Amino acid sequence: MIDVHCHLNFKTFADDYDVVIKRALAKGVTRIINVGTSLESSEWAVKLAGQYDELYAIVGIHPHHADKVQHDWIGKLEKIASQPKVIAIGEIGMDFYEYKSNGIVDPKRQEEVFVEQIKLAHKLNLPLQIHNRHAGEKVIEILLSHKSHLLNPPGMFHCFAATKEVLKSALQMGFAIGFDGNVTYSGLARGETVSLPDLAREVPLDRIVTETDSPYLTPLPYRGSRNEPSYVIITAEFIAKLRGISFEEFEAQTDKNTHAIFPKLR
Ligand code: NI
């Protein structure tokens, strides 16, 4: 089982990431991919990957931080992204969710930062790990207008939530789709119109991947506590059941999918 998207590079894991990693490996998680959201957290993701054979890094500027980047950020990111255990550029994309801390970052700035990183990924021959929150149509529009910069396969949408039309477009472009612990929650998240289980049923089996987004989106029955990579197994069990296949079959398929998306993953 692989956790294709988590943040052990965040402060909340500073004191016990080693325990958390060992617990995940003991439970059968074979690869853990830490994702940056800023230059600092990207650097830390790469450092962690250097400490454990099973860890890899994805680096990039999250749209929510698009207003904080400074002079030559893209040059600095290129340096970080050129490390051997960096397997993709992410999490990058668009986010129109109104955050309590700083609302919505100027959409024009978000788009500029997104597009710069699509071009960087192309230059470095790396796939994309896409973040979309309440901006599905815009993300698709931007990706379509930069089609020539996408690899084949182009990468994945992380923590998918959108309409079925957006899902269809993402699949048509060749993207894989990641689901997290929130697939186990009942009802609809605020601002969404299709339930996550409904979306998880629609994705072809050879395009699904599993992730935790730790420390966020803890699956039931642990919702309310800090999420961690070992819980990716709970999400996988839930989706396997939803799809009417065994956990073993689902695990083998998602591992295969992950390696297809990220050729640098060993
Ligand atoms: Ni994340």
CATH architecture classification name: Alpha-Beta Barrel
Please estimate the helix content. Answer: 25-40%
**Multimeric state of these chains?**
single chain
Strand order of the largest sheet: 1-2-3-4-5-6-7-8
Q: Which whole number gives the mean pLDDT?
A: 97
**Overall morphology:** globular
Description:
The chain has one domain: TIM Barrel. The protein is 39% helix and 15% strand. The protein has nine helices and eight strands. Strands 1-2-3-4-5-6-7-8 form an eight-stranded parallel β-sheet. Strand 3 (55-59), helix 3 and strand 4 form a beta-alpha-beta unit. Bound molecules: nickel (II) ion. Residues 5, 7, 35, 91, 213 line the site of nickel (II) ion (NI).
Brief overview:
The chain is an alpha/beta fold. Helix content is 39%, strand content 15%. Helix 4 links the parallel strand 4 (86-95) and strand 5 (128-133).
Helix and strand arrangement:
Blueprint: E1 2-6, H1 17-27, E2 31-35, H2 39-51, E3 55-59, H3 73-81, E4 86-95, H4 107-124, E5 128-133, H5 136-145, E6 155-157, H6 164-172, E7 176-179, H7 196-202, E8 208-210, H8 232-243, H9 247-261
Parallel strand pairs: 1-2, 2-3, 3-4, 4-5, 5-6, 6-7, 7-8
Helix pairs in contact: 2-3, 8-9
The structure holds nickel (II) ion.
Nickel (II) ion binds at residues 5, 7, 35, 91, 213.
What distinguishing features does this structure have?
9 helices; alpha/beta; TIM Barrel; 266 residues; eight-stranded parallel β-sheet
